[in-house]
Amino acid sequence: MLRIGTGIARGRRLKSVTGAVRPTGSRVRGSLFDILSARIVDETVLDLCAGTGSLGIEALSRGARCCLFVDRDRRAVRTIKDNLDCCGFRESSKVWMTDAVRSLDHITDHSCAVDIVLADPPYGDPVARQIVRTVGERNLLAPGGLLVLEHHKDDHPESCEGLDLERRRTIGDTTLSFFRPVPAAAQSDRSDQPVRSDQPVRSAQSVRSDQSDPAASVNRTEVLPIDIPPPAPRTRR
């Protein structure tokens, strides 16, 4: 039984999705939010391959400003909506039934930046690397933002243009990889430094303060991901 671990919805039971959907385990979810800690407060969150919605709902419970949930499975979308109703978070959230990469393109097409992206694609699915590449190339993250990718410990998605792999944390068979945006001015002279598993994720304030990208000094967009329309359904031929 899935339960919310901390925050205003602590202890609430969440519905599961029958079938092949693999929810994030409580140990992994607890470790993730222990690392994110207070930086989740008042941030805009995107939960990709959301499944039950447990990651995004945990973020809302801990004080996130809003969360957009994305999953292409109709059963998952129905379950996420039920879980949001149970926890009282429907007004600060929206659920899209579409694939992860298409949602990322759609969000950036609307000039909407996101503070934290939580992605839990199926283990071994090529979409994991596509998510990392798209987030980096489309500059989806706000200055000081963070992409957290959950994947199998034997898989190692690497940095790409626009993103820097900052930290990895392994819990059992699961690894959490933390990526942060690289300022445009620094991308041309990045050095290949080894990733330290014990390196802490820097706070949003410290990341923002040392960015040399002029965009970092621009006020954060007020276009929230839950305010933009979902992608149009694909037309069958």
Question: What does this entry show, briefly?
Answer:
The protein has 237 residues and is an alpha/beta fold. Helices cover 27% and strands 23% of the residues. The longest helix has 14 residues, at 74-87.
Question: Your description of this structure?
Answer:
- With 237 residues, this protein is α/β, with parallel strands linked by helices.
- It has a single domain, classed as Vaccinia Virus protein VP39 (Rossmann fold), CATH 3.40.50.
- The chain has helices at residues 26-36, 54-61, 74-87, 100-109, 127-137, 184-187, 204-209, and strands at 2-3, 13-14, 44-48, 66-71, 93-97, 114-119, 141-152, 163-171, 174-181.
- The protein has a 7-stranded mixed beta sheet.
- α4 runs parallel beside α5.
- The protein starts with a strand and ends in a 28-residue tail after the last helix.
- Residues 201-221 have low confidence and may be disordered.
Number of helices: 7
CATH class, named Alpha Beta
CATH superfamily membership: Vaccinia Virus protein VP39
Proportion in β-strands: 15-25%
Secondary structure blueprint with pairings:
Elements: E1 2-3, E2 13-14, H1 26-36, E3 44-48, H2 54-61, E4 66-71, H3 74-87, E5 93-97, H4 100-109, E6 114-119, H5 127-137, E7 141-152, E8 163-171, E9 174-181, H6 184-187, H7 204-209
Parallel strand pairs: 3-4, 3-6, 4-5, 6-7
Antiparallel strand pairs: 1-2, 7-9, 8-9
Helix pairs in contact: 4-5
